[in-house]
Each structure stands twice: as C-alpha cells, then as structure tokens.
C-alpha cells in the first residue's frame, strides 16, 4: 500500500466571534490557506487532484459547496475539483483521512485536506434554526425518537454527563481551562505558532489596515478567579463558557501526497500518516468516544500511549481531554501542550486540520517522532489520526 505524506500544513490565527476575521468571507479565508499550501511547496497547482473541505454550518456564505467556492476564490486552476464534507467537529480531520485514503489506495497522488468555519458570518446551528422557524420539521426523525425516546442529543448535556461519570468538579474544569490559556499564551510568546499561521490582512475600526497573525481568543492575563466568576450554563452543572471551547472564525489545511508525488515534484515530507481510525458509540453522552477510538487506534497501530510524544485532544469542553487523559493514563504535559480550543478557539469544520497543523509543526520543532490527534464529534463519533514526523 502506498504511504501518505504531509508536505505542508497551515492555519489562520483564530478570530473571536465578531472579531478580527469577521470581515473575511469564509471561501476567501479558505482560499488564502490553499494558496499558501501551494506557495509553501512550490508545486504546480494544476497537479492538485482534489480539495476535501470540512465545514459544519453549510448554509449562507458556507453553502453552495464552500470547498469549490474556495478553489474558485484561490489561484488554483478551475480544473481542480473540490468537495465539502460534514462530520461535525471532526470534519477536516475526516478530510485528512479521506485524502490519505485516496493516496494510500493509489487513486490520487496530490490531495489537499482543509477546513473552514466563519462562526461569525454563519452562526452555529443557524441552518437548522431556519428550517425550524419555517415549520419544516425536526432534526430528530420519528424512527430516531422510537429508538431513543425522550432523549435530547446535545453536546452540552454530553459534556455534563462526562464530568459527572468521570468525577470532575467545577474546580477541576476551571483549573484545566486556566492551563489552556497559560500554555497558549506561552506558546505565542515563544513564537511556536509562527511557522504555521497564515497572516491575513484585515481592516481596523479606524479605517486602516493590519495583519491578523495572532490567535485572538487567548487571555494572556487569565486568572483562576476570573474563570471561576463565569456563570454556569445550567443550574447544578459544572460547564461554563470559560471551561468550554471558544466560538471562532478560521481556516486551515494540509497537503497530502504519495511517494511518487514526492519524487515527481521535489517535495519534502513533514510527516507520514501512521494510522487512521474512526469509531462511533453512544450518541447521548456523545463526546466520550475519543477514549475508545484511541484504544482501537493504538491497538491497530501496535503502539502504547507511552510511545506517543504529543497528543492533541480537542478541548470542546474541559471534561473531554481530562477524561481521555485519565482513561489512557496519559502524560498531561504531552496533551495540548500549546493550549487548546478553550484558549485558541474551535472553528468547527476547520479544527481538524488546525490541530494537525499544530501537531506536525510541534513534533518537528521539538525533534519528536509520533503524534496523535483525536476529536469528539456530534452523534457520538470520534476520529483518531497518528502521524510520524520526518
């Protein structure tokens, strides 16, 4: 079977809701990432055989097949096809896995996996809300209701359930949230993200221009007292806006190629894909599946958690990485070592390739070998991708 290599990985800096990236159309934001991947590799853009774009809220400016829209907004020729996919928060991680599978099967040699989400311009849940307002039906079908009677499928409720099941208190979650900001701030100050961020020109309120190249959501002066002051989202619960991921605008992408393409185009590999896993489980607790997906991935790869140098476990809600680390007896220092979505933001469909970008660059910068990425996803699904830095 052909090996799949990552030869370029880039992301925008995150923008807060209504913040510095609010003026960017999502197709244009994604196009900037595509152009940067091409520039980084020096590849002939006509050699790109497909673009697989993750996006969750596929309506409004992210409707009309935003993956193709990004290609048409970029410098890539019209001959480059694209598709937009939705595996909820794991959309662009699944894009990586589809791209790698295409390369590993010998079907294609050069594929870009990417993701985009403007949560400012296309708010989360807005597409479903439009249908509900028009009285055009419910997301939960009659047969789903028969199978799960009276059950609400909610990521928020799932996060509360995980915290209760695994015994995490509000103090545990808030302490973890603070650490996310501390690590993200330190990584930013060290310049750790410099090689992965695509700078974007933005208009300033005063009518001037600036460059957006720094994640906007990081609280550099975060304190435990400040995080504790945020109100609970449900009475008697433990989840707050401060210990959950931030709403975020952003785009990201990686270029994945075969060994034949490495030689034909003179490309330098950054990493190789070592394992691709996706599993599904309980759609009610929903966000716990990364624990079990990682079990399967490690078993299939013939590895133990100790062999993994860095782990990116998406911080959708603080209980998710905490439960994952406890389940695997994982080293906390290796998990989300540069902060996570609580500090850096979670641009839904863009988060998969965003985390992979950070993981690949961090492994190489630190001289480490193996990295693991996992993502909890709506409906009780989880992706796991293991890479080997080169």
Structure description:
The chain has 390 residues and is α/β, with parallel strands linked by helices. Helices cover 36% and strands 20% of the residues. Helix 3 crosses helix 13. Strands 1, 2, 3, 4, 5, 6, 9, 10, 11, 12 and 13 form an eleven-stranded mixed beta sheet that branches. A two-stranded antiparallel sheet has the order 7-8. The protein has helices at 26-41, 66-73, 91-104, 126-133, 142-147, 155-166, 170-190, 224-228, 259-265, 289-301, 319-328, 341-344, 351-366; strands at 5-12, 15-16, 50-54, 82-85, 110-118, 197-198, 200-203, 209-212, 248-257, 271-280, 310-313, 370-377, 381-389. The chain contains 13 helices and 13 strands. It starts with a strand and ends with a strand.
Q: Element order, helices and strands?
A: EEHEHEHEHHHHEEEHEHEHEHHHEE
Structural class: alpha/beta
What would the average pLDDT be, to the nearest integer?
Answer: 96
Shape: globular
SS strand fraction: 15-25%
Helicity range: 25-40%
Overall radius of gyration: 20 Å
Query: Can you tell me the residue ranges where pLDDT is under 50 for at least 5 consecutive residues?
Result: none
Given the structure, what is the number of helices?
13
Number of strands: 13
The largest sheet is: 11 strands, mixed
Terminal-residue CA separation? 19 Å
Layout of helices and strands, plus pairs?
Layout: E1 5-12, E2 15-16, H1 26-41, E3 50-54, H2 66-73, E4 82-85, H3 91-104, E5 110-118, H4 126-133, H5 142-147, H6 155-166, H7 170-190, E6 197-198, E7 200-203, E8 209-212, H8 224-228, E9 248-257, H9 259-265, E10 271-280, H10 289-301, E11 310-313, H11 319-328, H12 341-344, H13 351-366, E12 370-377, E13 381-389
